[in-house]
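Feature request, filed as a ticket because there's no other form

It would be nice if the structure record came with a short human-readable summary line next to the tokens. Right now we just get the raw output. Example of a typical job, pasted below so the devs can see what we mean:
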Amino acid sequence: MAWSIAGSDSGGGAGIQADLKTFNAFGIHGCSIVTALTAQNTQGVQALEPTSPTLLRAQFQALESDLPPAAIKTGMLGSVQTCNMVAEFFQTLEVPIVCDPVLASTSGTGLLEPEALDILIHGIFPKVGILTPNLPEVEKILGREFQTLEAAAEQLMALGVGSVLIKGGHAAGGECRDYWTDGTQALWLSSPRIDTRATHGTGCILSSAITAALTLGQAMPEAVATAKTFLNQCLKSPANLGAGHGPMCIEPFRNAPEDRPERFPVA
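Raw output as currently delivered:
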């Protein structure tokens, strides 16, 4: 059993909806703590309303007392209040935590209050087993540009996370190269870039697939590779819906050889 602590996407392509579909694709029962409601579609976010602290706490207590998780994924947290409460929740939980630090939507809408970033970094990161930022999120978290992914990962590790997967989807080139390290081991994962406009929810799918793989007992390096394989599968299956960045079809995990990334361990 896995939990997703994230926002609801009314368009169904990202957030809680994508997380639960991904858990199901791996045969995992998913539970949800909804941090916010959004009004959005493939073209952007039109409105957002955070969950009240009372209801947020009630969701956590309901699940903790009856449906405890084997692993947890966090996505959009949104507000200072929510970040503070999630940091408090994590003090009583000793399970793998996957943090997708959602700072903005695919369309560019800000999804985390500026004042909440410090709480995310100092209150939540030290409990996180793996952090999965994209390139713009890395720069926002570090507050500066970086020269290499290796250097950026080292700086992110210094914030207290157990491991880091920096996603290279925003970089140029025909290959999409991600970099993972836990400070002792390091790994490059490379796949041919897939030309598609169905990219809504990629970060949510990848991080929730890592969560599912951890729930199934995979070690972190293998879980990261499994999730990358699953994301490649999804990117090759556009739903062909909407006029903007559309959703993907999230189908049962096939583990097809052609979807697996090349893995290059770093000595």
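Something like this underneath would help us a lot:
The first strand starts at residue 2 and ends at 8.
Helices lie at 15-25, 53-66, 80-90, 116-124, 135-142, 149-157, 202-215, 220-235.
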